Q: What sequence folds into this?
């Protein structure tokens, strides 16, 4: 198990048990207490957990329920399944856009199987995790850091992305409406995803079933702009018809 996979497991366990000691975590994950301590230090520095006396707990800001650290552990098992399917579309020496969503992050440990990849992102934690992998050259867009998010935002991100062409884009969205609109609740994220789609040869959309049928303020793009939709639930007839009309391939876990 890589340290990235182990840290995902730590988040998963803490989301269930809330607070655990280093000793208990080492027993659950079958690694030494020294290894757990090193992981907790890194995760604490990234704002994912809060260290306690002899252990750790999930970092949760009560004033911001939707902080990225909390979204990252929501539906984690489903997100890992989506990413296990998405990784099949990646080839050695590819140039990839990876958005800043929590949905696409579980693919990062799976990228170590490839020979040299170039990954472009505006995700802060995404870039940090990628930078620890020898087979990946990572580029991160510059701009304003979004509060309680994994994202760098602003026109400078769009300008940066406009100079780069990618083989593949892996993106998510906050919701898919019943008429095929992929929507987000952040206008800046919507603008960034639009330019990512324009600059990519193939677009993979990863969404778990909780996002189907939901509509948020900003329409980012439509299923017509997506080559492959990967989800963890068999689509009902209206969604299947929309995907068929959009000529979007649907992959279910």
A:
């Amino acid at each position: 198990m890589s340290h990235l996979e182990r840290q995902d497991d730590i988040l998963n366990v803490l989301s269930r048990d809330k607070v655990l000691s280093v000793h208990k975590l080492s027993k659950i994950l079958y690694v030494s207490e020294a290894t757990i301590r090193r992981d907790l230090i890194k995760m604490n520095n990234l704002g994912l957990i809060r260290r306690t006396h002899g252990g750790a707990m999930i970092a949760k800001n009560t004033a911001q329920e939707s902080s990225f650290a909390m979204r990252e552990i929501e539906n984690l098992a489903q997100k890992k399944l989506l990413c296990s399917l998405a990784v099949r579309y990646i080839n050695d020496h590819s140039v990839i856009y990876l958005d800043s969503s929590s949905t696409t992050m579980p693919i990062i440990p799976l990228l170590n199987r490839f020979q040299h990849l170039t990954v472009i992102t505006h995700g802060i934690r995404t870039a940090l995790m990628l930078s620890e992998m020898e087979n990946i050259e990572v580029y991160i867009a510059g701009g304003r850091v979004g509060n309680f998010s994994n994202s760098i935002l602003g026109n400078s991100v769009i300008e940066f992305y406009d100079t780069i062409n990618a083989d593949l884009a892996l993106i998510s969205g906050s919701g898919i409406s019943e008429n095929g609109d992929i929507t987000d609740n952040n206008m800046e994220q919507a603008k960034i995803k639009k330019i990512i789609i324009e600059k990519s040869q193939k677009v993979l959309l990863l969404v778990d079933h909780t996002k189907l049928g939901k509509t948020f303020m900003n329409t980012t793009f439509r299923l017509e702009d997506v080559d492959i939709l990967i989800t963890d639930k068999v689509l009902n007839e209206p969604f299947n018809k929309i995907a068929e009309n959009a000529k979007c391939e649907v992959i279910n876990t």
In short: DSSP finds nine helices and 15 strands in the chain.
